[in-house]
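The freezer alarm interrupted the setup, so I double-checked each line after restarting. Inputs confirmed:
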Amino acid sequence: MTAAAITGLGLVSPYGHGTEVFWQKLLTGDPVTEPSPTSPATAGEPVARVPPAGETGATPRKQTWAREALAEALRAAGRAELPPTALLVIAGSTPCLPHPTSPHAASPLPDEVSGPDLRDYFGGARVYVTHACASAAFAMALAQQCVTGGTADIVAVVGASVLNPYDYSSMDVVRAVSPTGARPFDTTRDGITVGEGAGAVILEPAGGRRRGPLLAGASCRVGGGSASASDDETIAACMRDALAQGRERSRVHPGRLGYVHAHATGTPQGDAAELLALEGVARELGIHDLPSGSHKGAIGHLLHSSAFPGLVAAVNALRDGIAPPTAGLETPEPTERVHLLRRPHRIARDSTALVNGFGFGGSNASLLIAPS
Amino acid sequence: MPGDPLTEPPSTELQLTEPPSAQPPSTQPPSTELQSTEPRSPLVASAPYTGESSARLLSLSRAVSLVLRDAFAALPDDLRRDAPLVLAARDYCAWAVARYIRCHDDPAYRLRPFDAVRLEPAELIRPYAAESGWRGSCYVADDDLPGTRGRALVTEHLLRAHGGLVTCELRALADLGLDDPGFRISAVALPIPATGAAISPTRAEEIP
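Predicted 3D structure, all chains:
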C-alpha cells in the first residue's frame, strides 16, 4: 500500500497570509486575538481576524482565502494548477447549492456559512466533508485513504472559515466562548476565541516526483456519549489507531511520537478530556515527556478549518525540530507525562507528530505525521 | 458494468420506487429503507421540524440508527465492526443551516444548544455508534453538487481499501424550503453479497 506524502501546504490565518508567517509568529507565543466591540462578538469578547491583503470585496473572503491557500499549496507541490484527474476534498459546514427554485424555499445561504464555492475553480471530482470543527481533519483522513489506496494520483484538501454572526452564535449558545480569550490547557481557561482563515493540503503518493512528510496514519470516528464534548476514550482510541496505522503501513514506530498538536480549544471539559487521553497514550508508549500544545490561544479557533493550522504547525515542528508554545498558557494543568509547552521546545528531528481534531456530533480525528 | 459497485454510484442503487420485498431476492441490494404509512411515498421517513421540540430530530436519529443497523448486519462478520461508513447528507446540511439562520434572525426565537448541535449530521450517526460498538471510520461526505462524482470516487477508494463499507443517504423528499422537506434514509452495504441478502424494510411506525 502506498503511503501518502504531504507535498504542499497553504494557510491564511490571523497571523497573516502564508504558512511561514504563521509558523514564525506561532513560535513567539504572542496571541493576535483582540476584544471586538462589534459583531460577531456579542459582549466584546476577543476574536481573531485575518489581516486584509488587498481583497476587493467583490468575491467572498471565504472563497478568496480558500483559493489563496490552494495556490500556495500547489506552488509548494511544484504545480501551477490541479490536474483534471485530481480529487478535491472541501471541508466546511454546507456546500454552496444552487439557489432554491421553490416559491416556498429559503433565500440562498449567506456566503459566510456555506462553501467555499470552488465550482469555477475546479471542474473535476469534488467531495464535501462536514464534521463540525473536525471537518478539515476528517477531510485529510479521507484524502489519505484515497491516496494510500493507490487510485488517486493527487488529492487536494481545502477549507475556509470567516467570522460571522451565525457560526459565532452556534458557539456562544453552548457557552463555549471565552469572555477574555482562549487559554488552552491553562487551569484558568474558560472557553474558546473564534478566529478565521483558510488552509489547503496537497497529498500525493510517496515516492513520486515531489517529496514531503508522510501522512502516515489517520483515524476518524464518530462516537462517544455526548454531542458537545469529546470523551477521553474515543480520543485515545483515535490516537492509537493513527499510530497503529503508521506502524503497519509506513513502519513508523509509535514510540517515535515526539509532539502532539492538540485540538485543545480552551474549554474546561474538552481540554480535560484530551489531556486525559494524552496522558494515557503517553503511558502506553512509555513516553515520559510528551510535548503538546495548541494554536488556539494564538489565532483562535478556525472552527471547520481548525486542523489546517495544526497540520502546518506539526509539519514545521518536525522540519525544524522545534515544538511551538501555546499562547495564553500561564498556569498549565498538572500532568505526569505530558509536557504542556509555554516556550518553544526542542524535539528530535526523526520524531513523529499527531494532530488532533474534534467536533460536535462526537466527531474525533487524529492524524500522524512522519518525516519523509 | 451495470450493477458493479465499483463503477456505479451507490445513489443509483438507492433510487427505489417500491419496497425491496417486491424485488427478486437475487437482484435485491442489501439495503433497508424506512417505510412510512403514507401511500404517496412508500419508502420514506419524515421528521418534520416543529420548532418547539428536539423530539423530531431524535426520531430522525433513531431512524438513521435502524437503517444503519440493518445495513451493517448485511456485511460479513469480519468486516462489520470496522467497516467505514459514508453518510451523504448534502440536503440535510443545507436544510439544517437554513433553519438555523432563520431561527438566528428571528428576534422572537431564543437559540438553544440543541439548535447548534442539530447542524451536524454526525450527530445522527453518534447514537448508532454508541449503541452498536461499531468503530469504523466515518465520513459525512457528499458531492458538493449533484453529479460531481466525488462521492462515487471516494466510495470506490474506500471499498478497494477495506473490502466492504456502508453508504447511507439522507435525501430531501421535497424542495429545500423553510419547512422540513422530510428525508428518505437509505443505506446499502457494499459489496453486495452474491446471494442477495434480503432485508425487510423498517417501518416508520416502528421508530420509537
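Quick read of the result. Chain B touches chain A through 55 residues (CB under 8 Å).
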